[in-house]
Specification:
Number of domains of chain A: 2
Structural class of chain A: alpha/beta
Helix content of chain A: 40-55%
Largest interface: A-B, 49 and 49 residues
Structural class of chain B: alpha/beta
Bound molecules: iron/sulfur cluster
Strand content of chain A: 5-15%
CATH topology of the largest domain in chain A: Rossmann fold
Oligomer: heterodimer
Strand order of the largest sheet of chain A: 2-1-3-4
Number of strands of chain A: 8
Chain lengths: ~425, ~400
């Protein structure tokens, strides 16, 4: 294991987020004694549907990342293995269903990851595994499940897009809302949804300004800083303090840009990261990156959260939610992703693409080879495809990664020289 | 182990034909196209409304895995994709599918979702399309209008590719031909149930697979020749251990493994695989508008599919009930390696079977070699467990 020889510049403003999440999770844990309802949410879109109604909501990928980053998966994976899950099954499914089963079976979990069982399961899944996860959770915990389909698959024309939005809005109205009303015991509060959406919109505008600053050399943050700041789009949507957080975050980044301070000292390589943030690997991968003065400037996943601010319309919340979600999920499909990555290469002046692929998740890795190929042809920018996983370290080979990563950086050096002539 | 019944030449010939077809669909389809001068459209298996393609005069075929090693595809898709998806890419990249006039994909599973992008970008095959067939069917009333909208979109696409209008009447005619095929295959299964030693599991699966690759009228004709001959044969008592096979929801089975199950002294009495009973389990209602009929079949919740989410399905219960209904003594789960939809449902299937002391064996099958020696030992152990009544 290599030591950290170079130190990353930490962002002061991000510290608030850790505290806010800890406090929120503590509130979730107190929910049963305070008579509040708990929702286990699956997928990126749609948490707003329940968080805005005072239903304390945890989200599968967020919880899995929390567990992964704290190296607490072992206990949970043991439970899911006992349940019969094969080890190459979606790691988020094994984590989330494992957590539920631990509770159902009375297995003692570390207090940080011990959440009350759900009163409601809500899934607006962008992948089949998410739908199945909702189904399994519902069967195993007895909680009712909302499972709806926001996917833009097959969208080619404007007519397709409009039909998908119409379909999603109908599902929100006819499937989701009646169930939320049943569980919460009161009529759906559209005003509360609008208010939360308005707050989220302010956050999204500020977040997009933060992202735009990444075009500067050196980039003021890493993609993973942006990932830490995602909670206002997941479970802290509309919460007090989130806009102020983004204001402080933006101010700190602007200050860095003005002073020429980068997240990575002496930034040498500017890279793109495909796929989810692999929190469990961040220690190892992060060390390699920083020691080579490489920064992950931009990526696919953190920008899948409400990037099209013009579509966020608090006056017309359900239609707007539908539109935002169909639109933002497009980046999960390789033909759109390919265009987006090519744009990023120009906009963020990238030197290379890091393309992690997880054998337990098919979301982002379909078409990765072609995305790299398209980029090589258009910009001469190389890509490195390697196996890893968001939480299951068993799928990552550290020694192999280091060797291949070093060779990848050499390729980038050679290409840069070639481009300079 | 040969079958216990002596079968007439006509039966042997038909079985030889379907075996050869399954072994080399490429040559069969090239020849068919040359003979008939008609277009061929390949679709992902299971849920695509093939009747609509058939109604245009084009031949719909369901995609199949090759029986060769996958090579070139591994530079385009990950090794941890299921054999079927990797094989489709491999065949397409190697030019083995050059006779196709189009390929239709839909949201069957996550792996299937990206295939059109890879194939379109790297091969000259025309008309690579992705259509949305909703993956969630828990609320049929909400889903149906959207599904019908997508079926109409498929109609437009077919009109463009075939160059002619596609009428409701033409679709209704094709539905009748497809329903007839389903009835004939149901009859085949009833015959096998009465007389399990009549056909090997491999042979049954090859007959069904041929239906997915042939023009339905031709397959109907084949069945109409085959069935009376089979029904004439004497019933032979069969004391082998009776097995119910589950799995391979879209991926055709490994035929060598099916042989091995029977070579180890077991007989397959029924199945719940796609190249088996699932293929013909549901018919389309002929008494309603054909688009409604096709949509209703898609939304029929009586045949659960792991790629269509229906929150009310209890997979453990479903498999257990099927097992009891066919009088089998044990269950073999055939899992295509890296098929997430199946492996996620396996959790409940395994638990329910274990809770009811039903002997069960999971066989994970890869496109590449499976250790047949190891498998043989596991099959023997299953058989002995059943014979000794070990629970
Ligand atoms: S397969 Fe991937 S995208 Fe789907 S639920 Fe699992 S981790 Fe998420
Ligand atoms: S075998 Fe499974 S993973 Fe492969 S295409 Fe079929 S449903 Fe998808």
């Amino acid at each position: 294991m290599s030591d950290v020889k170079v130190k990353r510049n930490e962002l002061e403003s991000l510290k608030w987020m850790g505290k806010a999440i800890d406090e929120y999770f503590a509130e979730v844990r107190r929910a049963p004694e305070e008579g509040k309802k708990v929702c286990w949410h699956i997928a990126v879109p749609g948490t707003l549907m329940t968080t805005s109604q005072g239903i304390l909501t945890i989200m599968h990928a967020h919880v899995a990342a929390y567990i992964g980053a704290r190296h607490l998966m072992k206990e949970v994976f043991e439970v899911s293995e006992d349940e019969g899950f094969l080890s190459n099954t979606c790691c988020y499914m094994r984590t989330f269903v494992g957590l539920a089963m631990a509770k159902v079976n009375g297995v003692k979990l570390p207090p940080q990851i011990d959440f009350p069982l759900p009163d409601l399961i809500n899934c607006m899944g962008e992948c089949q595994e998410q739908f199945t996860m909702a189904e399994l959770l519902s069967h195993k915990t007895g909680a009712p499940a909302i499972i709806i389909d926001p996917n833009p698959s097959g969208c080619v024309t404007k007519e397709d897009f409009d039909e998908r939005v119409k379909y999603l809005e109908k599902q929100l109205k006819e499937v989701a809302i009646p169930m939320i009303e049943k569980v919460s015991g009161h009529r759906y509060d559209y005003a509360a949804l609008s208010e939360a959406m308005a707050v989220m919109k302010k956050c999204a505008i500020l977040r997009n300004k933060c992202v735009a600053l990444q075009a500067h050399r050196p980039a003021p943050m890493t993609l993973f800083d942006l990932g830490v700041g995602l909670a206002p789009f997941i479970v802290l949507q509309g919460k007090p303090g989130t806009v102020e957080f983004y204001e402080r975050f933006l101010a700190e980044l602007e200050d860095r840009v003005a002073k020429g301070i980068g997240a990575v000292p002496d930034e040498k390589y500017r890279l793109y990261w495909d796929n989810y943030t692999m929190w469990r690997l961040l220690g190892v991968v992060g060390r390699e990156l920083i020691n080579h003065h490489a920064n992950i400037v931009i990526g696919r996943y953190p920008l899948a959260f409400y990037p099209d601010v013009e579509l966020i319309d608090p006056e017309n919340p359900l239609h707007s939610l539908a539109e935002c979600n169909v639109s933002m999920l497009k980046t999960l499909y390789p033909h759109w992703a390919s265009e987006m990555v090519n744009d990023y290469v120009e906009k963020f002046d990238l030197d290379g693409l890091l393309m992690p692929a997880s054998p337990t998740c098919r979301m982002f890795d379909i078409g990765q080879h072609d995305i790299v190929d398209a980029c090589e042809r258009k910009h001469g920018v190389p890509g490195l495809i390697f196996e890893g996983d968001m939480v299951d370290i068993a799928f990552f080979n550290e020694a192999q990664f280091k060797t291949r990563f070093e060779a990848f950086l050499e390729t980038i050096d050679a290409r840069k020289k070639w481009r300079r002539g | 182990m040969p079958v216990a019944v002596k079968r007439p030449k006509i039966v042997q010939d038909i079985l030889g034909r379907v075996e050869a077809l399954g072994d080399d669909p490429y040559q069969f389809l090239r020849d068919w196209k040359a003979r008939n001068d008609r277009k061929i459209i390949a679709c992902l298996p299971m849920h695509f409304p093939l009747e609509m393609i058939h109604a245009t005069g084009m031949l719909p075929v369901e995609m199949w895995p090759s029986n060769e090693r996958i090579t070139i595809a591994h530079s385009y898709v990950h090794v941890f994709y299921c054999g079927l998806s990797r094989s489709i890419v491999d065949d397409a990249l190697q030019g083995k599918l050059e006779f196709l006039d189009g390929m239709y994909f839909y949201d069957q599973c996550m792996q299937a979702r990206g295939l059109p992008f890879v194939i379109e970008r790297n091969t000259p095959i025309p008309n690579i399309e992705f259509h949305h067939l909703p993956p969630i069917i828990s609320n049929p009333d909400v889903v149906k209008p959207h599904l019908k909208w997508n079926l109409e979109k498929i109609r437009k696409s077919l009109e463009r590719i075939s160059g002619k209008a596609l009428s409701d009447d033409a679709i209704s005619q094709s539905i009748k031909i497809y329903n007839k095929n389903r009835k004939l295959l149901q009859r085949l299964y009833r015959t096998r149930k009465k007389n399990p030693g009549l056909l090997r599991a491999r042979e049954i699966a090859r007959i069904v697979q041929a239906s997915a690759l042939m023009l339905k009228e031709e397959h109907n004709e084949l069945l109409e020749q085959l069935l009376p001959e089979l029904e004439k044969l004497p019933v032979v008592p069969d004391n082998r251990v009776k097995i119910f096979i589950v799995g391979h929801f879209c991926h055709p089975p490994r035929f060598d493994v099916m042989d091995m199950i029977e070579d180890e002294g077991m007989v397959v009495v029924d199945d719940d695989i796609y190249n088996g009973a699932r293929y013909f389990a549901l018919s389309v209602n002929e008494d309603v508008n054909p688009i409604d009929g096709l949509a209703d079949k898609f939304l029929d919740r009586s045949l659960p599919c792991p790629t269509r989410i229906d929150n009310e399905v209890n997979w453990g219960q479903y498999v257990k009930d099927k097992f009891h209904a066919c009088g089998a003594q044990g269950v073999i789960n055939l899992l295509a390696k890296y098929c997430p939809p199946h492996q996620e449902r396996y959790v409940d299937i395994k638990r329910e079977l274990a809770r009811n002391n039903i002997p069960e064996l999971l066989i994970e099958l890869e496109h590449e070699a499976v250790s047949l020696e190891g498998l043989k030992t596991r099959l023997q152990a299953l058989r002995e467990q059943i014979e000794m009544g070990v629970k």
